[in-house]
Design goal:
Pfam families: Glyoxalase. It comes from Lutibacter oricola. The protein is α/β, with parallel strands linked by helices. The protein has a single domain, classed as 2,3-Dihydroxybiphenyl 1,2-Dioxygenase, domain 1. The chain is built from 2 helices and 8 strands, in the order βαββββαβββ. The longest helix has 12 residues. The mean pLDDT is about 95.
Length: about 130
């Protein structure tokens, strides 16, 4: 394969401002909110280099088509400091709930942790350390 199959993700939200504040706090990032054809989107920062690893994505508010929840696909977001315990330590204070503490997947793959965000989505974290 030339690239990983995943190329874009959308995380459903019920309250865009609350969700943006949560993710900005947990990941120490700034997000950009825009209206896209009648759907509100909060964009995660993304690499300008088209060869960069990982997929770009956004928070999305459109209650007609998107419902937050803990069932379904598990999305893994990369630790921005290569240690999932750093982001996980910010989850509760930001209004979320840690549900899986840092654990090693395998030596080769690295570590994971998971949380429920302010919107009720189950999200995982990944890091090599």
């Amino acid at each position: 394969m030339k690239a990983n199959l995943g190329c874009w993700f959308e995380i459903p939200v019920s309250d865009m401002n609350r969700a943006v504040k949560f993710y900005e706090t947990v990941f120490n990032i700034k997000m950009h909110i825009e209206d896209f054809c009648g759907t509100q989107m909060g964009h995660f920062p993304f690499a300008k280099d088209k060869e960069a690893a990982g997929a770009a994505g956004a928070l999305i508010y459109n209650p007609k088509y998107y419902t937050p929840g803990t069932n379904g696909v598990m999305l893994y977001l990369s630790s921005q400091v290569d240690d999932v315990s750093v982001e996980l330590s910010r989850v509760e204070a930001a209004g979320g709930k840690p549900i899986v503490e840092k654990m090693q997947i395998t030596e080769e793959i690295g570590y994971m942790a998971a949380f429920i965000d302010t919107e009720g989505n189950r999200i995982a974290l990944h890091s090599k350390n």
